[in-house]
Write a structure and sequence with these properties.
This protein is of the alpha/beta class and about 150 residues long. The chain has 2 domains: about 70 residues, Rossmann fold (3-Layer(aba) Sandwich), CATH 3.40.50; about 90 residues, no CATH class. The chain has a 3-stranded parallel sheet with strand order 1-2-3. A 3-stranded parallel sheet has the order 4-5-6, with helices on both faces.
């Protein structure tokens, strides 16, 4: 994304968050990490330029959402599942304006498929019933191309 002129904002800690931050820095980009006092033992990864410190886990989640122009969900655990679900629901119910959203790889595909069966199977005015809000990308390059194309439309 940084090669396309975008900054990268993540949760600021280790694992995928650190890998994304490192990739962005090595490509010459700016990184922002949104952290929380709630995670008492977690350490900010060394690839973060700017730390935005929140008090609670919930404040951190909504600050990440507020700051984003687009979203990418990688393979992850319950924290990533919550982030995916909250963003998807907020866009689905038009609580926030639609923003480009991609999942990387096929890890989340079963979740997307089950939710879409329910959403599309019931007539509703909601977003997902009228078109897919989450794009499934096969590669990081596919994610970057999708988000870049969508963000340049806005």
């Amino acid at each position: 994304m940084t090669k396309h002129g975008f900054s990268v904002c993540s949760g600021g800690y280790g694992g995928v968050m650190e890998a994304v931050s490192r990739g962005a820095k090595e490509a010459g980009g700016k990184t922002v990490g949104v952290t929380a006092d709630f995670f008492k033992t977690a350490k900010l990864n060394s690839w973060i330029d700017v730390e935005v410190r929140m008090k609670t886990w919930e404040e951190r989640l909504f600050e990440l959402i507020r700051r984003a122009d687009g979203f990418v969900a990688c393979k992850g655990g319950t924290g990533t599942l919550v982030e995916l679900a909250v963003v998807w629901e907020m866009m689905n119910k038009s609580v926030m304006a639609a923003k480009p959203f991609a999942v990387l790889g096929d890890f989340w595909q079963p979740v997307l498929d089950r939710v879409r069966e329910v959403e599309v199977g019931h007539p509703a005015p909601w977003g997902e019933a009228n078109g897919r809000l989450v794009y499934a990308a096969g590669t990081p390059g596919d994610v970057a191309s999708h988000l870049t194309a969508k963000l340049k439309q806005t």
